[in-house]
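Forwarding these from the shared drive since the link keeps breaking.
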Amino acid sequence: DVDIVPVVRETPGRKPPSKDRGPAKLPILLLREVIDRCAAELDPSFKPSFTAGAYDGRKNLFTPVKFPIANNETKHIRIVVPDSEPRPPRPGQEPQEGPHGRRFDVTFKYASEINLEAVAEFCRGKKQSTQVEASMLTAIMAINVLLRDDVCPS
């Protein structure tokens, strides 16, 4: 499970963003760039999971290599996606120190293990309980993401 939240800088004199609005819908290409930056900046022990994984462009990162996170833990990282061109400071603001670009707080959390056996049972025509059926649909979604993911990331 992946949560990507833009870090909003509070500016004096401006109304802070509403907490009631819910998460902003970000472009999928931007979210993929954030995930790619995470792969580059996280501890090297995460590298095999990112290399073998497939991201659905929203909330799920499926990987056959388990992340080095315990089942009930989360991993937080702040990522900066650099601007394609440096922006001049706004009137009345001082030039920004450090890396320029959009900042994101990214949280990784172990969600569950995918049971591919449920798909095989369905293909054999065996009757399934509602719980197994939900597991099977999750497995099919994971397979779909794996097949559609960029097989040759640049």
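-- next protein --
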Amino acid sequence: RDLHLSIRRQRQMCIRDSIETLQTDGKTLGLKGRKVNGVFLCSLYHNIYAMSTAPERDSFVNAIREALTDDGLLYLADNGLVQPGILPYHGPYIAKELLIAQLLNYGFDLVRQHQHIPQRYLLVFKKRPDGQTPAPIPPVAGFGPAPSGASPAVRP
């Protein structure tokens, strides 16, 4: 038991020491040239999409791409559209198919997607090497099959 608690404390310390929260200007990540293994945006991309100009959005997404290590991951959790009759999320939302298409166009590949409840999804992207063909889109993991009539992701 003591060994288990010691391992748990060490793991928590490693996680705590490896995560940094940043407030950005919406055009860069504010990392000043540092590389990171992961970027996590939660309930944020719908704001970037809706309130930024195309050049501002391009700058922000390109800053993420430049900041990621070659094997780094971009995690996007956001609020999705739901089928009629399902209680929608209480705030703004964005169709994940739109987000997937945009990130493919920006040079990312979708490596995993999760949807544990109809209103929220998590998309995990990896930076695609320049000149490489986009990878196939993985199936959704989560609460069940995609709702009937759900639109497929669009390839750029």
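The two ends are 53 Å apart (CA to CA). The first strand starts at residue 36 and ends at 42.

- D.
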